[in-house]
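okkk here we go again. third time trying to get the pyridoxal-5'-phosphate bound version out, last two times i messed up the smiles copy paste (missing a bracket lol). double checked this time i swear
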Amino acid sequence: MDLLSPRPGVGQIKPYRSQRPPQDGRRWIDLSLTQNPLGPSHLALAAYREAASAIHRYPDWSQDALRHAIARRHSIDVDHIVCANGSEELIHLVTQAFAGPGDEVLCHEHGYRGFLKAIRAAGATATIAAEREFVVDVQAMIDRATDRTKICFLANPNNPTGTFIPADQVQRLRAGLPPHTLLVLDSAYADYCRRPTYSDGTEIVENSDNVLMIRTFSKMHGLAGLRVGWGYGPAAVIEAVNAIRGAFNVSSPAQAAAAAALADAEHEEATYAHNAQWLPWLSRELERVGLRVYPSVCNFVLARVPTDPSLGVQAVIDHLAHRGLLVKPVADYGLPDCLRITVGREEENKALIVALAEVLG
Ligand SMILES: Cc1ncc(COP(=O)(O)O)c(C=O)c1O
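finally!!
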């Protein structure tokens, strides 16, 4: 018998792996991660550099300046905000705080895989509701909830499908879940979605006592490398997360840069405008070279490679890599014939289409 063995659930987790640009001196175009192609805000960079001179000190455990900046920017109550080392950490913390062995946590079919990892790490059981055509099916989620369901995760919009459900559907989901279930709304891509029927979930948080909204600085704000996410929710949830998080979980340069990024409306507008211009272009061009593209409201698209016995997804990925381009295979999302492709800079998007046209004929 092994003396050391992690608890059940941990063995089901596959460590994160993704294709990395080889260090071969070539300039690689990485469209495999959902990053901001324009980079960070210059205000965030300046704040980061200034904070560097004080990195011999521990960060502010109370995250005060950053929480106040978030509260001001989003007109929300500072006492109901908690920050974490990326929204990924927050997903883990809230799962750990509210679910454990014997509990169920509800997710959707092609939902963000970070949820499953957190659920398994906490020793809880994931239950999965089917989607319809890559869109969350609220009734299917309600039907899957039981008296053991402690958390329901909804990524809205979702990664990797790029689809969203409107605010009234989110409200219907909340109303249909048992009162003992915490609805976690992961709004990582909210900044890209300006559809009139969409809401990041702020009002739902404010009108209920069992909803937590999660946001990130990794996407629109271009700070993926710094790892800053935040949550807005009821006092009981914020207190539980604060109780178990590391006191210094967000580094001081990260807190400073994130707070500064919120003041850079110009960077945000430029990022939004870039995406609004290139997302439709990319979707159109991908269709033109033969991929099936699903409509996205995010900074990436999900594209299906045509069924052709002589050409699989891997052959496409290999050809792109040969041309110095990385995209994301999404087989572990139950989408073995699809790729997730992030909107890049103009020349990157164009290089991708040229390389795809070569391999797809
Ligand atoms: C839906 C969703 N939630 C959360 C995350 C985690 O983001 P981060 O930990 O960088 O804040 C991602 C990252 O891709 C995501 O797509």
